[in-house]
What does this fold into?
Amino acid sequence: MTGILVVNHFLNGSKFNELHAHLISTAKIMNIDLSLKTNLDLAVNDAKADFVLFWDKDINLARRLEKNGVPVFNSSRAIELCDDKAKTFIELDGVVPQPQTFIAPKCFFKSDMSAFVTQAVEILGLPLVFKESFGSFGEQVHLCHSFEEIINLVTDRPFILQKYISESSGRDMRLEIVGGKCVAAVKRENKNDFRSNVTNGGTMTPYTPTDDEIAVAVKACDTLGLTFGGVDILENGMVCEVNSNAHIINIMNSTCIDIAPLIFSEIMEKIK
It folds into this structure.
């Protein structure tokens, strides 16, 4: 069996290289010839393989590969829904519990959002969480204590405003779901930041999720169409975010559970 691991040409560093090398070596053990290609490599070329493991967010490329008949995991639609925090919220609204959220109205350049922010603050209260709709590793996420703080963060980029869940400040649970099953989980904690991300100084420890937490995480992944994904759940049981290509090395180091072979097994099951 042949596969292509698609990664972003413009993201470099040991963190990414370690993950890519691990996926390729795992595939080799499982008799999968997995070659690495960047989104730049495939920008003007077709992919010829039994499947693509798409560890990027270049949705247009993922969709083009699908249109050419190559099975892509996760699918372009699933990646798109997870990449855009506004779309994630809408898709999961009424399906799983989430913090109360308002999506900024669309604008075509930096605009006066004071009326929207005023209404959101009246309903959500302060502090509240400002999130740009696109971002990873906790970047572009801010805890705002005033109207002025929010306004100063507004640019021409889309954003959401979310109710601050104080009891889960700096803490959440990451549940890794593969093929509709929870295969690993960690508790993340950051004593110096309201964001729990390890990239921002947080730590993680192995965690045994409750049946309710597993059910919520599985439902979120099923609703978003994910073959595999990482679901962040707050301590009150609400879904914070869903990741279409979570960094599985950190979880492996914490739990000693290697998710990579489970992902490949699920892919092989789906395309056989």
The mean pLDDT is 96. The first helix runs from residue 14 to 29. DSSP finds nine helices and 13 strands in the chain.
